[in-house]
Amino acid sequence: MPSALTTLIRGGLVLVENDHFEHVTLLVQDGLIFDIIHGDGPDDLPVMDATGRIIIPGLVNGHTHSHGALGRGGVAQDATLEQFLAGAPALNGKRTVDDLRLSAQLSAAEMIRKGCTACFDLSVELPGPSVAGLHAVAQAYFNAGMRAVVAPMIADRTIYQALPGLLAALPDDMRRVLGAMTLLPWTQTLADCEDAFASWPVPNDHVRPGIGPAIPLHCSDEFLGACADLSARRGIPLQTHLAETRMQQVAAQQRYGTTLTSHLGALGLLSPRFSGAHGVWLDQAEAALLAQTGGGVVHNPLSNLRLGSGIAPVRALVDAGLAIGVGTDAANTSDTQNMFEAMRLTAGLSRVHAAPDMWVSAREAFKMATEGSARILGFDRIGRISKGWAADLLFLDRAYCHYVPLRDVLSQIVFSENGAALREVMIAGRIVFAENKVLTLDEAALHRAAQETAERLDAANHDIRLLTDAAGILVRSFCHATCTAHPQPTH
Ligand SMILES: [Zn+2]
Question: How many Cβ atoms sit within 10 Å of the Cβ of residue 322?
């Protein structure tokens, strides 16, 4: 298959305007869909024969973490979010810049293989972000051919400082050790982010910076306000984990005396550049406030189920008028970065407690996983096959069992596709996946490096892991007891 600057893609059944399927020819030029042609188009251009393919826009992952790829398999199967967070120093500690790059490459390879062409990556580096680390991640996506927002995930409070009453509930020896842990001063953290953004190493139309205050409770108000300033000053997206768990909802009332969203609103964080990942425990007033300020929410059904965080009220958020994207969350808590699965669950989970007229339709789920997530990333003109939009395309094999017989193509994609019928992936007019290979990365070499690196990191983090495993169990119990002691919300 050619990867020339100008290509005619002939013979495919194309999802035009995210609206209807049609046999058309796509003229791709300089990374864009230059024209949608009825018929074969000109004879003097390189042709990609897409006969037997269903062509849809690339899926856009509204929320993930590249560092999670090297942490795969490292999260206890019964971990809650807070237990997982308590273990983060052992999972993410002692990584070199090369390790960060490797994890981002693994993450990009997985996403490309599963039909994702752009993502919002909240990337962590301990003890804090560095210019070299952020640039390595950005460069990894760029070299893989993917689009991405790379947002350093940052905080200035440990989980022990974040959750009211947690430290006091721990046994003395644990309290002494865990209470002494601190994070870097936020002024230093943000100065390092600014340095990295000012010398951004790759073109912004492919990989651009964002800012990711990890979880509001884990960030001081001054820090959150400074993140909002930075986002406004640079015009970059800001994403945080918003009301992911019931514990966060309860702790917000304890710490702020109000909801998370209302607190963020008072601090000036809410804007069209703002998105909250998860939003499982948002109430109606929070949804209305987010809608009013132009903010968005990214639905992450895979990790919400894995960590037992709950089912996000997606229909209520849509009805409130919010921009909704879909994300996978990280490879260590989902445990797959498969946007097809996240999209299917978006439609499926909406049916658990709701009347049929409240369900998320296949079409809605598809739009959320393409244009919806693109809006969260702040990328213009990706997520739809339309003239002048990015040539970020997926080629599905219509002879695969998912499409035999073929009746309602979009419904069959949303409800049955898991990436197994994916044959080619094009990003910005360039084929990056074909014949079951990611063409921009040496996957075999990456896999060898991943195994060696994981073993080295596990050995280096062995002692801290013993501590955080024990602490994680106590954190989980504390959160469960705290949530049980507070009345359930209305939704
Ligand atoms: Zn996350």
Answer: 27
Fold of 6-57+387-436: Urease, subunit C; domain 1 (2.30.40)
Q: Cα of 214 to ligand 1 centre, how many Å?
A: 8
Give the residue from 250, 342, 361 showing the smallest Cα distance to 303: 342
Q: What angle do CA 5, 7, 13 make, to 5 degrees?
A: 140
Distance from the alpha carbon of residue 334 to the mean position of ligand 1, in angstroms? 10
- Distance between Cα 278 and ligand 1 center (Å): 8
- Tell me how far apart the alpha carbons of residues 225 and 88 are, in angstroms, rounded to a whole number: 25
DSSP 311-355: ---HHHHHHHT-EEEE----TTTSS---HHHHHHHHHHHTTSSS-
177 Cα to the center of ligand 1, angstroms:
26
φ, ψ of residue 108 in degrees (nearest 5): -65, -40
Cα 229 to ligand 1 centre (Å):
22
Considering only CA atoms, which of 371, 372, 365 is closest in space to residue 350?
365
CA of 281 to the centre of ligand 1 (A): 15
DSSP conformation class of 419: S
> Which residues are found with C-beta within 5 Å of the ion, ligand 1?
329
What is the arithmetic mean of pLDDT over 227-249? 98
Confidence of residue 1 (pLDDT cuts 50, 70, 90): very low
Ligand 1 center from residue 244 Cα (angstroms) = 9
Q: Is the peptide bond before 152 cis (omega within 30 degrees of 0)?
A: no
Domain locations in the chain as residue ranges? 6-57+387-436, 59-377
Q: Are 459 and 451 in contact (CB under 8 A)?
A: no
Please give the class, per CATH, of domain 59-377. alpha beta
Backbone φ, ψ for residue 103 (5° rounding): -65, -40
Residue in 51, 40, 57 with CA at minimum distance from that of residue 12 = 51
* The model's pTM: 0.97
Q: How far is the CA of 360 from the centre of ligand 1 (A)?
A: 23
- Quick: pLDDT tens for 107-143: 999 999 999 999 999 999 999 999 999 999 999 999 9
For the four alpha carbons of 79, 280, 65 and 363, in that order, the dihedral sign comes to positive
C-beta of residue 310 within 8 angstroms of C-beta of residue 281: yes
Q: Distances in Å between the alpha carbon of 364 and those of 177, 301, 370, 401?
A: 48, 15, 10, 24
State in Å: Cα 29 to ligand 1 middle. 35
Rg of the chain over Cα atoms, rounded to whole angstroms, equals 22
